[in-house]
Design goal:
58 residues
């Protein structure tokens, strides 16, 4: 029979490791979303500037 204290510690370590991975994944997802929206807004800004210059120059 396994020692219950040892088993509880092992389970707790696993839960903590899973929680840490989930937190890291959430942070990576937030970072990816931030990069996506920043690049999208910069691309739209460049298109807007090009459209304005084409109207002024054309």
């Amino acid at each position: 029979m396994k020692n219950r204290t040892t088993e509880d510690r092992r389970v707790k370590k696993l839960k903590v490791a899973v929680d840490n991975r989930k937190a890291k994944r959430r942070k990576e997802d937030r970072d990816n979303a931030l990069v996506y929206y920043v690049s999208l807004s910069l691309g739209l800004f460049v298109l807007l500037v090009l459209a304005i210059f084409s109207v002024i120059g054309g």
